[in-house]
Amino acid sequence: MKRxxxxxxxxxxxxxxLVTALADEAAQPEETxxxxxxxxxxxxxxxxxxxPETMTLKDFYETxxxxxxxxxxxxxxxxxxxxxxxxxxxxxxxxxxxxFRQYAEKFKYVDTKDMDTAYKxxxxxxxxxxxxxxxxxxxxxxxxxxxxGVGITFVYDETGDAWGSVGTxxxxxxxxxxxxxxxxxTGDRLTSLMGYDVSSSPFSAVQAILSSLGEDDNYIELxxxxxxxxxxxxxxxxxxxxxxxxxxxxxHLYPNDRAFVLQLSSFKNPNTYLQLIERFKELKxxxxxxxxxxxxxxxxGDVYVASNIISAxxxxxxxxxxxxxxxxxxxxxxxKSNGGGVEFDTLHVLVNENTASSAEITALxxxxxxxxxxxxxxxxGKAVAQSAxxxxxxxxxxxxxxxxxxxxxxxxxxxxxxxxxxxxNPRVKFEFPTDLEWFNxxxxxxxxxxxxxxxxxxxxxxxxxxxxxxxxxxxxxWDEHTTNAVTFLQLSVGQEPTGAxxxxxxxxxxxxxxxxxxxxxxxxxxxxxxxxxIY
Length: 535
Hints:
The longest helix has 16 residues, at 74-89. Among the domains are: 28-127, no CATH class; 146-244, Pdz3 Domain; 443-518, PGBD-like superfamily/PGBD (Muramoyl-pentapeptide Carboxypeptidase, domain 1, Orthogonal Bundle), CATH 1.10.101. It starts with 8 loop residues before the first strand and ends with a helix. The relative contact order is 0.11. α11 (303-311) runs parallel beside α12 (358-369). The protein is of the alpha+beta class. The strands form six sheets. Strands 1, 2, 5, 17, 18, 21 and 22 form a seven-stranded antiparallel beta sheet that branches. Strands 7, 8, 9, 10, 11 and 12 form a six-stranded antiparallel beta sheet that branches.
């Protein structure tokens, strides 16, 4: 019985993959209908199987097949398979029969026309992190690190200190991407995108252009400027958009503090470790000796990826980092450093109430083995890992198989990590300017190309407020900077990019500007505190 489904299972990944928010949502049990007033014949006619106290898992399997209309009884097979998978993998010892009895006591009925609910209910008996995902979630779960693109990560330097001038720069290029094949490098300055001049525009302009692209837009045209010694060259390229494994991290440079912030969004890409090592070495050679790792709102991922990322900050090899264990066996899987990492003068890790799983493991190990200081708020306390697999019908499940322990055999599960420096990030009400010049649906006709008047000033100040125009170009003269800003605003609101004012655009401007009157923004006290600690 236990091996009845050997041919059914097609293992895609059987690794320590931590649960995502998608899995948590799908794992919630749905309400079970009350069939107690129906007769056995009526229930079976409706495809409902009743589970009496005396029924065994084998009996249930045979009864389920009598009303199972799925091809080759796959619905019946899946339910039984899951019971035995839980017996094999769950970190708390149990048996398939015990799990079945728990199910029968809580739910009593199975609707064979809605087996996905039955599977979700079964996994809900375990813990809040075990899950079942129907086939329609397959792509979003397993392919979450791929997207249609060219493989470039951009960063905007608003002061000119970090990248040498004000503008949008290539912060990173994904290996194997079309951008990498065309020789685009970190540090290249974007000057034109899809025919639009962005050399003097804020980053909102770049975002507006990219957001206006449709799924059928298969190519991106751009120009970039490269400084090589005293020579400046400009290159015009056309890049094909294709399925690309995107980078799960980005760097922000603070040259005055000789510091950089590494923002890590997840732990899914096994190539992240090598990419980080390469960038770490470059930055250290440039004098960046203070590292800040931002793990706020990072819900985790693969612990093998996490162990490699931890190793990126540790020079020595074979340093015991952490282990994944189960009840009665703490050191089931041990993880050690790879060696060859890059150490920095100071290392701070930003965490908050949404830092979980592999992100917590990383923060803890960097504190214990790399001298990192944790700054922020208490973390989730999710020190469990799931074994994940996909069946031949593309449904996916994850069973909590291990608990994470540090090198001393202690766990933060259900406790969380308390930062050394506890700080919150307050929300502050936006101070709306009280001296904006008059601009409305009547006088907007005075703001045209070539005009120089108060109405143009009023328009440009609003474009600056919305993030489409740099402050130094607000001069009351309608020039190319004004035309570009209006064009980018039109792209962002889905209007035809004519570069000229229209009444619908004036209405959009009014609506957007009015939202700022009651808006709030977050002050990053946590990052500011870290930068203040560096000396």
